[in-house]
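Schema walk-through. Below, the input block comes first and the output block second. Nothing else is stored per chain. Lengths vary across the set, and this one has 299 residues.
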Amino acid sequence: MKFTHSFYFFLKIEGVDEDNAQLILKLAIGGQTVTVSQYVANIVDDHEYKKYAKDLSRLSKPKDKEQDKDSRNEDVSKIRKRREEEKSTEEKTQRHQNQDDDYERRKKHKEKYKESKHRDDKIKEKYRDSKYKEEYRDSKVESRHPNKDRESMHRRDYFDEDTHKSKTKERSSKSSHWLQADLRVRFIDKVYKKGKYYMSKVNIEDVVTPDQCTCKTDDGYLIYDVLESMLETVIPKSDPGHIMIVLGKHKGKLGIVIKKHKDRQKVDIQLLQDRDKIVHLNYEEICQYAGDIHNNEDF
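--- output ---
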């Protein structure tokens, strides 16, 4: 006979009190006689009784197991907490590092742009000085040798004509650039960053040069050194959609897409600055506007 508890004892039945539903038992260890309820005792066979009746080591095993289990759970909890703290610290460090890197890249871009502009100004100034000296020298030569200088004057006129053509071509090239801040564009370059941003839509955050800009992803990450050739304009899917005119005589103006003619690749645009005016443009002349319309002077 044994008790139905976590720590139980083996006893022999000495007698039964049927009126009170109790058993008179004798302890296997010590030989003392006790009275217990018959509902807290179980009958065992002779083999189990002989094997465990006087085995006291079993009384300490459950407690040791529970202590070991609690200790293991506590260790696992500490390790998990320490790993979470280390992961949080690494994420914060990485985030600060990315912010510092972005700031340094932006700073280098600005310095590079200033150096380039300063170098261009020096070249222009040098050209103006050389041209002034040449004109002064030619005037002196012309006053001394009017007939002899006629040929050199023709040469200078020819040079000035070529310079004018090159300047006109340069101005035309600049006017063909369409990059503007707050435009919604699509990344079409497969090589940049190993194609990480290929066919994804981004917003133009800043225009560094006429053909170079900084973009911002929908997740808030900045993309630097993006060339105009890596991007293409985006047409708003829903009508009416807000756009900016990026080419032509209305370049820089905001408008609303009234109607699309997909078969002809053309759109009807209502200008925000002059809402009574409707213009008909090609797809490549407009781009979706992602800025705040209400804060724009055209609104």
